[in-house]
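Practice problem: Glucose-6-phosphate isomerase
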Amino acid sequence: MKHPRCDQTPAWAALNAHFQGSGRRFDLRQAFAADAARFDKLSVQAPEVFADLSKNLLDDATLALLLQLARDCGLEAQRDAMLAGEAINHTEGRAVLHTALRAPAGFGPQSEQVQEVLERLLTYVEQVRDTARSGMRHVVHIGIGGSDLGPQMVVPALDSFAHGELKLHFVSNVDGHDLAPVLRGLSPHDTLFVVASKTFTTQETLANAQAAKAWFLGQGGTDIARHFVATTTNVAAAAAFGITTTFGFWDWVGGRYSIWSAIGLPIALAIGADNFRAFLAGAHAMDQHFAQAPLQANLPVLLGLVDVWYRNFHGFGSRSVAPYHQGLKRLPAYLQQLEMESNGKGVDLDGNALAYATSPVVWGEAGTNGQHAYFQMLHQGTDVIPVEFIAVKTPNYGPDLAPVLKPLLADQHQKLLANCLAQSQALMQGKTTEQALTERAPTASAALDAQTVARHRSFPGNRPSTTFVLEALTPRSLGALIAMYEQRVFVSGALWGINSFDQWGVELGKALCSALLPRVASGDVSGLDSSTAGLLTRLRA
Ligand SMILES: O=P(O)(O)OC[C@H]1O[C@H](O)[C@H](O)[C@@H](O)[C@@H]1O
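Answer key — structure tokens:
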């Protein structure tokens, strides 16, 4: 069924008028002063994730119009079509059913095959974990993009749940500087290689897998069948490569949504079967919330609506993610693929060029590190960049924490939380020149007059942010958090009327790379543009 594109709806026109009127002049400070209940009204408790949306540029009228936009675009019907397994990835003729991977047995589409692989995978996982001390203690996961970013993000995030004897390594880049240092110091007899590729055709992954296999045999390794496993939808290609132990998944799982499939093998190896099931269960709980909660209390829906409000009306071009948990340091990279590969599209479902913006740039760094690098721009730069803070109430430093560290790290955790709160407060409050004038600036140049210094030291404020709070970073809460982001990306994509589930934009570079590869070897630059020819010649010289 066809649904109206956002810009073809009455709500879109009404939002435009509202933005041109009071919407663009909205002031957070006044909104908080005028309404003591703002936090209560604009915060949502979803499964495992509490979200404070109150520091966003939203008033009742904006929210009502955004919810109307969701209805005008048939968001609920679009959501239900995805969850029911309709082929909503229409350019590839595929369903989009990553939600089926985390549903309990017997629930929804594809359950039987999902459970069959999951059981086999988790049985294998427990065998490897049980014998890690005497068997394979190192796992080298080889994959890229959606076959890498998820495990690479989640394994350190859940470090305190990890098997003490198993060490996980990740190799993705075709650059040998990725593989070489990982293999240095490893020995084939206690190393397991996991070759992860949905298609099993990806240049980088196949090159690294070939090199790993050659290294394994060269170092005296013998049992490829035991030391190499593949996670893929292309079991035949893995077999042709010489890998007989394979855990499959299906074309209705997008690469960037595949963390819940066999691609999650390294996560399951690290945290074990029960914790992996909890990770899936957390995501399923968020799916149920997304499927059932009324739009105005539906967290992924509200987030997606705010994204559209900022991108298309305020014109904000990027969003920064600041997880205040070191374990989540790879979350921004994970979210980059999730959001920018999904929604970085320029045509609607019928292939018509869009007259409005789609995916913002998503970027970030773990807090507090980012504060000492680019937060300057967030506070005083000329662009308004909404920031997303993630705070975790209760830390977990894992087993065997030295007793002397306990009170010290408890204190550090308080500092971490205070920093997180201070940043969103500072973005919102800002500081006027008059306020700055009342303060002494110890490092200010004596040659400058006070007014000039105060202008440099003032902050515009009224800069929006969202803060998510998790009780603790656990397999379950992390599963829910990731699912929340996935569904939110679905929401903005559905309103924009784009296909969030293909990625044709990565193909041209791959094709040109294939054409250039023999030229890099031969030096033949005939017919190339002068820049490419000049660079190629220089790189070969
Ligand atoms: O899993 P693979 O088939 O090896 O693909 C790995 C990655 O490469 C592609 O270029 C896509 O842009 C990604 O969506 C995908 O996750």
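Discussion: The chain has three domains: 6-73+291-435+448-474+493-504, 98-277, 511-540. Students who identified this feature from the tokens alone can consider the problem solved.
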